[in-house]
Amino acid sequence: MSDLVAENPHGSTETPVLARLSVLDRFLPVWIIAAMAVGLLLGRLVHGLDDALSAVEVGSVSLPIAIGLLLMMYPVLAKVRYSETGRIAADRRLMVSSLVLNWLIGPALMFALAWLLLPDQPEYRTGLVIVGLARCIAMVLIWNDLSCGDREAAAVLVAINSVFQVFAFAALGWFYLQILPGWLGLETTSVEFSVGAIVVSVLVFLGIPLVAGFLTRTLGERTRGRAWYEDRFLPKIGPVALYGLLFTIVMLFALQGDAITSQPGDVARIALPLLAYFVIMFTGSFALGKAIGLSYAKTSTLSFTATGNNFELAIAVAIGTFGVTSGQALAGVVGPLIEVPVLVAFVYVALWAGRRFFPGDPTVPASAAVSSRR
Q1: Which runs of consecutive H residues, i.e. helices, occur in the chain?
Q2: Are the beta carbons of 201 and 60 closer than 8 angstroms?
């Protein structure tokens, strides 16, 4: 979420995975836990905090939290190489597989896991469905880089997901929260759910930073060149995304402190379907990439882009639609706490699988290829 990683020659894994993360990203779970603790303390010590946060609102979201949400999204979207989105059409296997995994299988799997493991928790269940609809456009670039995946393919898939979410998120939310449960005879989301509210949330918290990110890259490259933009400018704004996330988490936990401290088991229950989701999506995507003949690099890219989720957007939509103290928002907040350590572990899995299942593939990292011949 901050600057991606230190420069490392593509194809080399001599440096340990964790060492190749920036300090901010390496200790992200620690920062998230610390932000939760600070939020809980603020909620206990500062009386009337909820009234103060609601004094000025953007839509149904308090201004401080809205600013935090926008800060989360902008640096991520400023990193996307929008001019290269057309290149993905050259590999239809990758493009079709990514679209199917991201927009058909991923949301359906999260829907199934949420109902299976949280049948008695409608707020958390709805929050997880929203998480499943928010396809990853952020830290997937980090995991892809660490696993020596195809950088350009990852950038293209991230750009496609970024644009696709603006048009598809609200419609899919309506389908998975109201239409599909009705067809299956399940409880639909309560009347407080509004497709219009989700549309507004997506347009504000994804649309605004998407336009800002696109204009920033376009103008930056036009005036100073791509090398300056990516080597000098992006590293400076990268940490802002993490700061925005941590600020938002502090505010969320300050307002949700009572619910969290009185029901700590709920956090564990939310974590279980998330963990199952990550495992199923990664292993299934990796197996699919191998089965359809993709190279190791593109298989790794396919797997991480299909597995990760855009928790920034999920948190923004949950807050904008259901409120800052809602169970839906809490489900989104728990997400990055689980995703970071799990996907770091999957980087090691991908590197191992490269030497095990892709013998002779030139895109397998060099040190992995050497170890496979020992």
Answers
A1: 17-20, 23-26, 28-45, 49-53, 63-78, 92-100, 106-117, 122-133, 140-146, 151-174, 180-183, 195-202, 208-224, 226-228, 234-262, 264-291, 296-307, 311-322, 327-357, 366-372
A2: no
Nearest-angstrom CA–CA distance, 118 and 112: 10
58: which strand partners?
A: 61
Global pTM reads 0.76
Each residue's pLDDT tens digit, 70-109: 887 788 778 877 776 676 667 889 999 999 999 999 999 9
Which pair of tokens denotes residue 5?
A: 């990683």
On whether the CB atoms of residues 148 and 365 are closer than 8 A, the answer is: yes
- CA-CA distance, 252 to 64, in Å (whole number)? 11
CA distance 239 to 246: 11
**Structure-token pair, residue 220:** 């930056």
* 3-state class (DSSP) for residue 70: helix
Q: How far apart are CA 328 and CA 60, in angstroms?
A: 15
Of the candidates 2, 48, 84, the residue with the CA atom closest to the CA atom of residue 254: 48
